Write a sequence for this structure.
């Protein structure tokens, strides 16, 4: 199967490690009414797969001089990059290179020792605002699906809605809607132990999308799946992202993820490897 | 949220049940002791107004009013007081009727107002060396005028069946004072003196005067007085307080321990909840809710065990003959309150711990 390499579409703001003024990024993300999205699907771009359109509601991410240590071990050092609205960025690097730490900092799950992470121009980590930011802006997919074992698929999908204070009936309706989208409507009442690995990850994808986030953060979403299941989950994830026009940052070793992303960021010993941090170009 | 709390508690049913049982033991003990206290109060209330008296004079600092011992001379000195209209001594024999240990046999002067107040339904009034039986006890034991009733293994002839309208009296029997003293083995002693006050006399003034002029005695005018005066009651009240404190500490530690383990086991889950936008407060409330849920379950079990166990407790303490445990809404409410308090008390620390977790670390360690 041919490896797809693409340029980012015009106006996607593919930028290198050097930050741009946030006002420009914000303007860019908010003024585009319709965005031309990259083609999705294995090798489909080469065959002239029709482009899809989505609403321009992806978030703009700006990582500015971010450093983080775990004890005495530096996890990230002066990491500096931006992601434009609607862009799909793959983050790769060897084990321990700081990929998951970077994702945690972008998602407001941890506080950088220095530097700032901005989403749509607002710092994502402030003690009071981070939970709200996560709820309103960010959807997470983890390698370990992290489903609550005693809850049904439907109730697992609805968990973020509890945090958002959505009523029971509306929660159930919304969760079923998402399960339908990921093709698991008939498995709604099953608990995770009754689902396959791929089905669990699809439930996790539905959970990540249930609050219609503007930024999708995925940490090795296909890492625990076989190739076929991995492709299906990735298709699902990217198609859902596409429909919503979300920005996505995906940490992955999976070559297919890197192939299908707009841009690849490589981390080496906690630093961005500039030589490998470039837009993917179509042949 | 409540559904999630219930589902989390069911995740480890054995652990939840064992923790709840720990709480249940404390709550059950509290409920049983409160039932016992109320039973004592009911007993005391019945004893105070025996024979239609305004107040009863008992020995002070006794374990309960039936354990009072007064000198026979006291009734005469009391009768001399201007505010006393009439006074009559009583001897109380508890657990003296083997067929019904709850029945009390009263020793009363045949010409005193206590005995004269009894309405004879059949047979003859009380006479020396005989016994008259309350209609409820007579019906229970199938006795009638002419038959015999063994009082502390002393067979006495039943001369009549009476009705007084006072439960204690109708569920008991009355013999003459000398016979009761002989059975009791204390010829010149009485249990209490029932006093009727002169018209227009202030109850509190009379009570204060008796206490002042007759050292070693106490005048009891109502059930609250009786409850306060009986050493058993005071002891039980203190025991309840101690058990409440112990239950709060031990139960709270149990809930803290269980909830802390649960938090440690489910770090990644709490990390996930933070990742999907749950506020720290909401996650803390989830943990606190699980603690309260466990202790509520324990409280419910404790109420059931306490109600069932209170009857066994009076038997175990050997006081079943004259004290019936009485379950009140207050006792149940207090048990439930203690249960909830244990949950809140025990859940605070793990709830606080979970708010201190960095989501990223929780996810990484999960």
């Amino acid at each position: 199967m041919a490896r797809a390499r693409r340029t980012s579409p015009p106006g996607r703001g593919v930028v290198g490690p050097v930050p741009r003024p946030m006002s420009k990024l914000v303007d860019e993300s908010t003024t585009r009414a319709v965005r031309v999205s990259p083609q999705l699907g294995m090798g489909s771009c080469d065959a002239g797969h029709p482009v899809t359109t989505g609403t321009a509601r992806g978030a703009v991410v700006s990582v500015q001089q971010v450093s983080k240590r775990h004890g005495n071990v530096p996890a990230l050092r002066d990491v500096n990059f931006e992601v434009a609205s609607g862009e799909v960025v793959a983050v790769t690097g060897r084990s321990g290179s700081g990929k998951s730490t970077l994702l945690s900092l972008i998602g407001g799950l941890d506080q950088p020792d220095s530097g700032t992470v901005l989403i749509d121009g607002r710092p994502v980590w402030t003690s009071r605002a981070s939970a709200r930011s996560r709820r309103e802006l960010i959807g997470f997919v983890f390698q370990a699906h992290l489903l609550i074992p005693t809850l049904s698929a439907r109730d697992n999908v609805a968990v973020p809605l509890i945090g958002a204070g959505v009523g029971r009936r509306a929660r159930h309706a919304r969760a079923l809607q998402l399960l339908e989208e990921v093709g698991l409507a008939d498995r709604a009442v099953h608990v995770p132990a009754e689902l396959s690995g791929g089905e669990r990850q699809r439930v996790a994808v539905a959970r990540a999308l249930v609050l219609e986030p503007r930024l999708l953060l995925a940490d090795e979403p296909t890492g625990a799946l076989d190739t076929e299941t991995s492709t299906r989950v990735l298709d699902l994830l990217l198609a859902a992202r596409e429909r919503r026009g979300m920005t996505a940052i995906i940490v992955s070793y999976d070559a297919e993820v890197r192939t299908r992303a707009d841009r690849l960021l490589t981390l080496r010993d906690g630093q961005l490897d500039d030589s490998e941090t470039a837009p993917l170009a179509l042949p | 949220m409540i559904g999630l709390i219930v589902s989390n508690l069911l995740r480890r049913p054995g652990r939840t049940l064992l923790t709840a049982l720990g709480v249940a033991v404390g709550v059950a003990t509290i409920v049983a002791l409160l039932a016992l206290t109320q039973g004592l109060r009911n007993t005391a209330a019945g004893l105070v107004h025996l024979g239609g008296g305004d107040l009863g004079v008992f020995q002070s600092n006794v374990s309960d009013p039936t354990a009072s011992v007064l000198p026979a001379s006291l009734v005469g000195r009391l009768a001399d007081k201007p505010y006393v209209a009439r006074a009559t001594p009583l001897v109380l024999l508890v657990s003296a009727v083997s067929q019904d240990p709850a029945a009390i046999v009263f020793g009363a002067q045949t010409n005193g107002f206590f005995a004269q107040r009894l309405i004879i339904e059949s047979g003859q009034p009380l006479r020396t060396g005989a016994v008259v039986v309350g209609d409820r006890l007579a019906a229970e034991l199938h006795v009638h005028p002419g038959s015999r009733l063994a009082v502390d293994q002393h067979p006495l002839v039943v001369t009549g069946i009476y009705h007084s309208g006072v439960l204690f009296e109708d569920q008991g029997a009355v013999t003459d004072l000398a016979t009761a003293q002989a059975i009791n083995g204390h010829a010149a002693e009485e249990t209490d003196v029932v006093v009727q006050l002169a018209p227009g006399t202030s109850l509190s003034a009379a009570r204060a005067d008796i206490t002042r002029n007759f050292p070693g005695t106490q005048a009891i005018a109502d059930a609250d007085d009786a409850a306060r005066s009986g050493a058993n009651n005071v002891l039980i009240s203190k025991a309840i307080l101690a058990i409440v404190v112990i239950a709060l500490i031990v139960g709270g530690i149990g809930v803290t321990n269980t909830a802390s383990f649960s938090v440690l086991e489910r770090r990644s889950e709490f990390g996930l909840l933070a990742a999907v936008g749950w506020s720290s407060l909401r996650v803390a409330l989830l943990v606190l809710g699980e603690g309260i849920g466990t202790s509520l379950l324990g409280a419910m079990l404790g109420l059931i065990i306490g109600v069932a166990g209170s009857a066994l407790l009076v038997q175990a303490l050997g006081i079943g003959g004259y004290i019936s445990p009485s379950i009140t809404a207050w006792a149940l409410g207090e048990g439930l309150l203690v249960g909830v308090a244990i949950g809140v008390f025990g859940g605070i620390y793990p709830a606080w711990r979970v708010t201190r977790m960095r989501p990223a670390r929780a996810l990484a360690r999960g």
Q: What stands out?
A: The radius of gyration of chain B is 28 Å.
